[in-house]
Amino acid sequence: GPSVPGPGPAPGRVVLLTFAVTQLPVTTAYAVWTGLGAVGVSLIGIFVFFGAHSENIMVQHLDFLRGHRVREGMMTHFVALSPADTVREALNKLLQGSEHEFVVEQEGLVIGTLTRGQLIEAVKNDHMQKPVAHIMTTDVKTFDVQDKLSEAYAELQKTKLPLYPVLDNGKLVL
């Protein structure tokens, strides 16, 4: 017959219901138990609603971005670091601006990225005089200025990486 979902697997629910009936009047225990089931079903409905809403927003964003290139949606003002810059210099740039992630470049070539978290870890380990080349991430994912903006957006949503440098003919766009 029909059943009301409750917390835990079915055998566990039966044990909990039996315990509740021995401690409370049957009518109270059953009312509480069915109320918990109704709350559980409501929570599942809320999760499904928000999941569908998020997916709808993603589809709307992709539709809006269709036909545009990365060049049209990229940041054009940012601070780049040199691999020889020290952790102290990078920390000063972090504190002076609003950026939390940095591109590390040399002669227009992206050689790494540096995040706020990496800087904080270097400061904790007293590496203030080390060059950022020692603490940066060297496995860098990039976009080209001619890439489709909708595909770049989907990639950003999928990977959640904080920074994707944009290249034009293999060189960092400054």
Question: What does this protein look like?
Answer:
The protein is an alpha/beta fold and 174 residues long. Helices cover 51% and strands 13% of the residues. The protein has six helices and six strands; from the N terminus they run αααβαββαβαββ. Helix 6 links the parallel strand 4 (143-144) and strand 5 (166-168). Helix 1 crosses helix 2 (26-65), helix 2 (26-65) runs antiparallel to helix 6 (149-159) and helix 4 packs across helix 5 (116-124). 13% of the residues are buried. The model has no long low-confidence stretch (mean pLDDT 79).
Number of helical regions: 6
Give Rg in angstroms: 27 Å
> What order do the SSEs take from the amino end to the carboxyl end, as H and E?
HHHEHEEHEHEE
Beta-strand portion reads: 5-15%
Low-confidence spans: none
Helicity, in percent? 40-55%
Question: Overall mean pLDDT score?
Answer: 79
Lateral strand order in the biggest sheet: 1-2-3
Structural category: alpha/beta
C-alpha end-to-end distance: 67 Å
The coarse silhouette is: elongated
Assembly context of the chains: single chain
Number of β-strand runs: 6
Report on the biggest sheet: 3 strands, mixed
